[in-house]
Design goal:
single chain; about 160 residues; alpha+beta; seven-stranded mixed beta sheet; 4 helices; transferase; acyltransferase activity, transferring groups other than amino-acyl groups; Acyl_CoA_acyltransferase; GNAT_dom
């Protein structure tokens, strides 16, 4: 079995299903850690409906969908913040497919997309409870930096120079 990664519109059925899985997991992790509960279903639906994904659409962004044996398995997004800087967003692999090498491939594909848009640096933010993500970024050459935004959920910020 192999991975394939291709750009895809955020409104596609595969991307929408993966966004729902991503948001459910990260939201549940947050609420379980901080409030001892899962995400309220009504809140989940409101947040999903509020997301436009415009930031991950060409020409200033791109959403990548990974497939494992042809089935939607994960996502990564990239958006251009300025002519030199791109931001990595929503790196996600479905839980049952983790450990099969998909996440590094998604990040690599996002880096290539950022380079194609002219970026020379990739930044990202994440939370403390997303320990797997922080370990992945460090393993892929990202270094922890000072905050670059004021996102209320961000607790760790990373950067990587994109050399050709």
């Amino acid at each position: 079995m192999t991975w394939t990664i291709t750009p895809e519109p955020a409104v596609s059925p595969a991307a929408a299903a993966l966004w729902r899985a991503y948001y459910t997991e990260v939201s549940d992790r947050y609420y379980l850690l901080h409030e001892g509960r899962r995400t309220d279903p009504a809140e989940l639906e409101r947040e999903i409906a509020a997301e436009t994904w415009d930031e991950l659409a060409p020409p200033k962004g791109q959403l990548l969908v990974a497939r494992w044996a042809g089935e939607p398995a994960g996502t990564a997004g990239v958006r251009l913040l300025d002519p030199q800087t791109a931001e990595l967003k929503r790196v996600f692999v479905q839980e049952h497919l983790r450990g099969k090498g998909g996440a590094p491939l998604l990040v690599g594909a996002a880096e290539e997309a950022a380079r194609a848009m002219g970026a020379r640096r990739m930044i990202l933010d994440t939370r403390s409870d997303l320990t797997e993500a922080r370990a992945l970024y460090a393993r892929l050459g990202y270094t922890e930096t000072e905050p670059h935004n004021d996102d209320m959920y961000a607790e760790h910020w990373f950067s990587k120079e994109l050399v050709n």
